[in-house]
Specification:
The protein is an alpha+beta fold and 819 residues long. The protein has 7 domains: 113 residues, Immunoglobulin-like (Sandwich), CATH 2.60.40.60; 106 residues, Immunoglobulin-like; 100 residues, Immunoglobulin-like (Sandwich); 94 residues, Cadherins (Immunoglobulin-like, Sandwich), CATH 2.60.40.60; 103 residues, Immunoglobulin-like, CATH 2.60.40; 105 residues, Sandwich (Immunoglobulin-like), CATH 2.60.40.60; 103 residues, no CATH class. It contains 10 helices and 55 strands. Strands 1-7-6-3 form a 4-stranded mixed β-sheet. The radius of gyration is 86 Å and the shape is rod-shaped. It binds 2-acetamido-2-deoxy-beta-D-glucopyranose (NAG) (2 copies). One 2-acetamido-2-deoxy-beta-D-glucopyranose (NAG) binds next to loops. One 2-acetamido-2-deoxy-beta-D-glucopyranose binds next to loops.
Length: 819
C-alpha cells in the first residue's frame, strides 16, 4: 500500500511537469483503486467538473478507468494485468481523454501501467528425459527448452541454473529476439557404473523483487558403454589339490567382475597357458576351475595357470592360479638290485656283501621315506650304505649243513599312511666247504658172529655220514692197521671201502679167539679230507662144536686103570670123580654127568653136576670085584654133544686081589676089536698121508721149477692159519692132538676155579673122533710147504718122513703086541 502511494506520488509529479496528465500505476491494483485526482490535476474543482459534465472518452480501454465525478478522482474500474494488456510492449499505457463541456475541452490522460513481477519464469514441460551414453565426450551439447516469463525488464527471465552441476554446465546463447537458447554441455564424463540415472534441476529465475523462478526436472538415463574391463577379485588365486583326484574335481573358483551392463558385463573365462595345462584343467563359464585330466605329483608338483576374464566387448583381465599338488602315497618303493651273488662259500667271513640294491620312491616326504628290512632269523643284515643304497651282508657264520640256501626277502616300505611296500626275494646258495668229518652212527660198534662162519661172510655194516655235500660227503671206509694177537687185523676182517660192510676174512673159532677189536676210519673225499674213526668190537659167539673132553679117568687103550673101593666103604663113598671139560662156553660147556651103563646099577651113582661117582648102598661081599661103569658126559648145547668114559672100579680090600681079578679078565672083545680096527685104520691113513706128501712135494717142486722162469707175482695173500693157542705137534701118526687146556669151570656159580695144565704132561692122549677135521687142517697147512725152497723146508720134510715112519712102526708094534 505504501508502495502504491509512493508510485502515485511519482506519477503525479510527472504529470504536472509535462502539462498533460499522466499517471502511472502498477498493474494488478485492486478494483476501485485510485488512479489519480484528475480534478486537481486539471485545476478544476469538483463542482465544476460536475457542471461541465466531465466524462472519459476512450477507445477500447476505457473500461479499465472510471471517473468519480463527486470526488474528481480517477478510479480503477477493473484490475489491470499488464501482460494481458500490453504483452511485451513497453511502455504500456492507457490513453484516454477527459472530455468537458462548457467549454468543450479535451484533456488527454495517459495512465501508464507499470510492470510488477507477478509472473514466474515457466517451462513448457515439467520434466525432460535424456538418454546419454556414458561414452559421450566432453563438450557434447544438449539443447534445453527455454523458460518463458511474461514479465518484462528485470521482472523478466534473467538466468538459468542447473543443479547439481557435476557433469554439465549451462551455456546461454543470446538470440536475436533477445531470448536465450539454453544448452547443457558435458563437462565431466558420465559414468553409468556410478550413477545410472542423473537427475538435474534446471531453474530459471527472473530479476524481480521478489524473485520468481520456474524449474524443470531433467532426467538423464546414462547408457552403458563397455568402458570397464573385467576385474579379478584376486591377483593370484591359490589352491591345493591332491594328486590322483578324479576328473571334474572343483579346484577353485575364480571370479572377475565387470561393472558394465548387459553383454558388456558378461564375463567369460579362458585358461591362457600352454597346451598341457589347458588339457589338464578347464574353467567353466562361471569361473569354476575343474580338473580335466590325471594329475600326478611325481610329474608336476605345482601348476601356475594364467586365467583370463573377457567380457563381450573384448576387454579382459588376467590373473594367476597357483595350484599346489599334494602328494598321495601312490608309489611303492622301487627296488633295483644292482648286483647279487648267487652263491657264497660257507666259510665266508662276517660282513661279506651278498647283494647291493638301490631303492627309490618317487613320492615325497613320508610317502617317499623308505625303510628296508629283510626276513628274520637268517644270518644276514641289511645296511644302508648311502641314501637309497642298501647292501645285504652276512652277520654270522654260515653253515651249509644247517641251511644250504636262503631266500632273502627284502621288503621296503615307505612311511605313508597307509604305507606301501614292495619286496624282492634273492635266493642265495651256500656252497660247501669240507668242514665236517664223517660221523659214525655210533660211538662204537659191537657185532656178533657165530664161530665156524664161512670166510667172506659179511658181519655187519658200519655207517658214517658226512653232512657236507657231494665229494666232500663221499665217505670211504678204511680198516686201520692194528694187530690182534700179533696178527694183522686185516687177516681177520676186511672193510668194503664203499659200503662199510665188514666181512670176515676167515672162519673164526670161539675156542681160540672170543673177541677182538679194531678201528675203522671213515674218510671223506674233500681236500684235504677229514676223517674219524670208530672202534668195532667183534664178539665171536660160541657154537657147540666141541664135545666134552674127559680129563679123568684117563682113557688108555690097553692099560688098565681102576679105582679101588674097599668093601668096607660106606654108603656115599666117593669112588672117583669124572672130570671133563668142554672148550665151548656157556651152555655149550655146561656139563652134566649121567651113568649110562653099569655092572651094578644099584651100587653107584654119578653126581649130575660134579661127576662124582659115589656108592649108593653098602658094598657087600657078593658084589663083584670088577665093576665097570660107563659115564656119559653131556654138554648143554643145542644139540648137545656128549662123550662117554669108562670107569673101572675094583671092589677089593687089597691090591693083589684086584690084580688077580683083573689079570684074568678077558679083554673086552668088542673093545679090542674096536681098537684093532682103529690101529689098522691109522696105519692106512698114515701110509696114505705119506704117499700123498711125497706126491704133493714132488709136484710142487716141479711147479716151482716151471714158475721160477716166469716172473711171478702173487697178489693173493697167503694167510697162514696159526691158531694162537694151537701147537701143531704133527702128531699125525695116531692123529692125536695135544692141547693146552685152559679149563675154566664156571658152569655153576658156586665156584670159579681155573685150572691150567698141560694135558699132554699127564700123557692124556685123546682119540679125537673128529680127527677128519684135523686132517683137513693139515691139508690146508700144506700151503706152508709152498714157501720158497729152504733148508728148513727140507728138514721139515725129512722130519715128516721120520715121524710118519715112527708112527708106522709104533702102530705095527702095538698091533703085534695085541696078537
Ligand atoms: C626258497 O624258495 C624256493 C622257491 O620258492 C623254495 O623252493 C625253497 O625251499 C626256499 N628255500 C628256503 C630255504 O626257504
Ligand atoms: C681215532 O679217533 C680219535 C678221536 O676219536 C683220535 O684221537 C685218534 O687219533 C684217531 N685215531 C686214528 C688212528 O686216526
Amino acid at each position: 500500500m505504501r508502495r502504491q502511494v509512493l508510485l502515485f506520488l511519482v506519477a503525479l509529479c510527472v504529470s504536472s511537469v509535462l502539462g498533460q496528465v499522466s499517471y502511472s500505476i502498477p498493474e494488478e491494483m485492486a478494483k476501485g483503486s485510485l488512479v489519480g485526482n484528475i480534478a486537481h490535476d486539471l485545476g478544476l474543482d469538483v463542482q465544476r467538473l460536475q457542471l461541465r459534465k466531465a466524462r472519459i472518452h476512450t477507445g477500447d480501454s476505457s473500461e479499465y478507468i472510471q471517473l468519480n465525478k463527486e470526488k474528481g478522482l480517477l478510479l480503477l474500474k477493473e484490475k489491470i494485468d499488464r501482460e494481458a494488456l500490453c504483452g511485451q510492449t513497453t511502455p504500456c499505457a492507457l490513453h484516454f481523454q477527459i472530455a468537458l463541456e462548457n467549454p468543450i475541452e479535451i484533456f488527454p490522460v495517459t495512465v501508464e501501467i507499470t510492470d510488477i513481477n507477478d509472473n514466474a519464469p515457466l517451462f513448457d514441460k515439467e520434466e525432460r528425459m535424456f538418454e546419454i551414453s556414458e561414452s559421450a565426450v566432453i563438450g557434447s551439447k544438449f539443447m534445453l527448452e527455454k523458460a518463458l516469463d511474461p514479465d518484462i525488464g528485470l521482472n523478466g527471465l534473467q538466468s538459468y541454473t542447473l543443479k547439481p552441476s557435476d557433469n554439465f554446465i549451462l551455456k546461454l546463447h543470446s538470440q536475436s529476439d533477445g531470448s536465450k537458447r539454453v544448452e547443457m554441455i558435458l563437462q565431466k564424463p558420465l559414468d553409468r557404473e556410478k550413477e545410472e540415472i542423473v537427475s538435474l534441476l534446471l531453474t530459471a529465475v527472473d530479476g524481480g523483487e521478489p524473485q520468481r523462478s520456474g524449474t524443470m526436472q531433467i532426467h538423464i538415463t546414462v547408457l552403458d558403454a563397455n568402458d570397464n574391463a573385467p576385474v579379478f577379485t584376486q591377483p593370484v588365486y591359490k589352491a591345493s589339490l591332491k594328486e590322483n583326484s578324479i576328473k571334474g574335481t572343483l579346484i577353485t573358483q575364480v571370479s572377475a567382475s565387470d561393472s558394465d551392463k548387459g553383454s558388456n558385463g558378461e564375463v567369460s573365462y579362458v585358461i591362457g597357458n600352454s597346451r598341457s595345462a589347458s588339457k589338464l584343467f578347464e574353467v567353466t563359464e562361471d569361473g569354476q576351475l575343474l580338473l580335466n585330466g590325471p594329475i600326478d605329483y611325481e610329474k608336476a608338483k605345482k601348476y601356475e595357470i594364467d586365467i583370463e576374464a573377457v567380457d563381450q566387448g573384448g576387454l579382459s583381465d588376467y590373473s594367476k592360479i597357483i595350484i599346489d599338488v599334494g602328494d598321495i602315497n601312490d608309489n611303492s618303493p622301487v627296488i633295483n638290485v644292482i648286483s647279487t651273488s648267487h652263491s657264497i662259500g660257507e666259510d665266508s667271513r662276517s660282513d661279506t656283501v651278498v647283494a647291493v640294491m638301490s631303492v627309490n620312491d618317487p613320492d615325497s616326504e613320508e610317502n617317499g621315506n623308505v625303510r628296508c628290512v629283510i626276513n628274520k632269523n637268517i644270518p644276514f643284515v641289511i645296511t644302508s650304505t648311502s641314501s637309497n643304497f642298501y647292501s645285504i651282508i652276512t652277520d654270522n657264520e654260515l653253515d651249509r649243513e644247517r641251511a644250504s640256501d636262503y631266500n632273502i626277502t627284502v621288503t621296503c616300505s615307505d612311511e605313508g599312511v597307509p604305507s606301501l611296500s614292495s619286496s624282492v626275494t634273492l635266493t642265495l646258495q651256500i656252497s660247501d666247504v669240507n668242514d665236517n668229518p664223517p660221523v659214525f652212527e655210533r660211538s662204537s660198534y659191537e657185532a656178533y658172529i657165530i664161530e665156524n662162519n664161512t670166510p667172506g661172510l659179511s658181519i655187519f655194516t658200519v655207517t658214517a655220514t658226512d653232512s657236507d655235500w657231494n665229494q666232500n660227503a663221499r665217505v670211504s671206509y678204511i680198516l686201520e692197521d692194528s694187530s690182534v694177537n700179533g696178527v694183522p687185523v686185516s687177516s681177520y676182517v676186511s672193510v668194503s671201502a664203499d659200503s662199510g660192510v665188514i666181512h670176515a676174512v676167515r672162519s673164526f673159532d670161539y675156542e681160540q679167539i672170543k673177541d677182538f677189536q679194531f678201528r675203522v676210519k671213515a674218510q671223506d673225499g674233500g681236500s684235504p679230507p677229514l676223517s674219524s674213526n670208530v672202534t668195532v668190537k667183534i664178539m665171536i659167539q660160541d657154537q657147540n662144536d666141541n664135545v666134552p673132553q674127559v680129563l679123568y679117568p684117563v682113557q688108555t687103550g690097553g692099560s688098565l686103570v681102576a679105582e679101588m673101593v674097599p668093601r668096607s666103604a660106606d654108603v656115599g663113598y666117593l669112588v672117583t670123580k669124572v672130570v671133563a671139560v668142554d672148550v665151548d662156553s656157556g651152555q655149550n660147556a655146561w656139563l652134566s654127568y649121567k651113568l649110562q651103563k653099569a655092572t651094578d646099577r644099584a651100587l653107584f651113582e654119578v653126581g649130575l653136576q660134579n661127576g662124582e661117582v659115589r656108592t649108593i648102598r653098602q658094598v657087600t661081599d657078593k658084589d663083584a670085584v670088577k665093576q665097570r661103569l660107563t659115564v656119559i658126559v653131556e654138554d648143554n648145547g643145542q644139540p648137545s654133544r656128549s662123550a662117554t668114559v669108562i670107569v673101572n672100579v675094583a671092589v677089593a680090600d687089597s691090591f693083589p686081589e684086584v690084580l688077580s681079578e683083573f689079570t684074568d679078565f678077558t679083554h673086552d672083545k668088542e673093545y679090542n676089536e674096536n681098537l684093532t680096527f682103529y690101529l689098522v685104520l691109522a696105519l692106512a691113513v698114515v701110509s696114505f698121508l705119506f704117499i700123498t706128501c711125497v706126491v704133493v712135494i714132488i709136484s710142487v717142486k716141479i711147479y716151482r721149477w716151471r714158475q721160477s722162469r716166469i716172473l711171478y707175482h702173487s697178489n693173493l695173500p697167503v694167510i697162514p692159519y696159526y691158531p694162537p693157542r694151537y701147537s701143531d705137534t704133527l702128531g699125525t701118526g695116531t692123529l692125536p692132538h695135544v692141547y693146552n687146556y685152559e679149563v675154566c669151570r664156571t658152569t655153576d656159580s658156586r665156584k670159579s676155579d681155573c685150572k691150567f695144565g698141560r694135558a699132554g704132561s699127564q700123557n692124556v692122549l685123546i682119540m679125537d673122533p673128529s680127527s677128519t677135521g684135523t686132517m683137513q687142517r693139515i691139508q690146508s697147512e700144506k700151503s706152508i710147504l709152498d714157501e720158497p725152497d729152504s733148508p728148513l723146508e727140507v728138514s721139515m720134510i725129512i722130519f715128516l718122513f721120520i715121524t710118519l715112519s715112527f708112527h708106522c712102526i709104533s702102530i705095527v708094534s702095538e698091533l703085534s703086541l695085541r696078537y
